[in-house]
Design brief:
- The protein starts with 23 loop residues before the first helix and ends with a helix.
- It has helices at 24-45, 49-59, 67-79, 81-88, 101-116, 122-136, 141-156, 158-165.
- The chain has one domain (23-165): Orthogonal Bundle (N-utilizing Substance Protein B Homolog, Chain A).
- By secondary structure, it is mostly helical.
- The chain contains eight helices and no strands.
- GO terms for molecular function: RNA binding.
- InterPro entries: NusB-like_sf, NusB_fam, NusB_RsmB_TIM44.
- Involved in transcription antitermination. Required for transcription of ribosomal RNA (rRNA) genes. Binds specifically to the boxA antiterminator sequence of the ribosomal RNA (rrn) operons.
Length: 166
Amino acid sequence: MISDESDRFNPRDPKPADAGKPSKSVKRREARQLATQALYQWHMAKQSLNEIEAQFRVDNDFSDVDGAYFREILHGVPAHKTEIDIALAPCLDLTIDELDPVELAVLRLSTWELMQRVDVPYRVVINEGIELAKVFGSTDGHKFVNGVLDKLAPRLREAEVKAFKR
């Protein structure tokens, strides 16, 4: 067998242009994490979205963040808050006002993604919501978030959920 020398690793070769750069999914995950914190702040402090966005852009390194997605979430969730809360209500055993504010931020973000970003598969939305709750929520908050999103996804993405379960 003749080996092709061009396939061998050469440490002197220049790295590809995107080497070391985070993937789109990593940048989106970072955007969701910052957006969760920003939505929490918006809910608790009642600051304007523009003030919160400006503060987050100054206080955080956005080099590994999908900044446009962060902005879309930060402004999209409050713009659709009423629709989001109406969609969430039948999937909850508590009222919106009784929810932990961190879990509420995660659920609103995830519900917004299910409603507005059909390009993001529902299973990704659920998984990302669970991961956000693990990072920011209470000890078992991720279980609560998982249960709510498992009920919500078939309501908002019926065809996609049915197609996956076949």
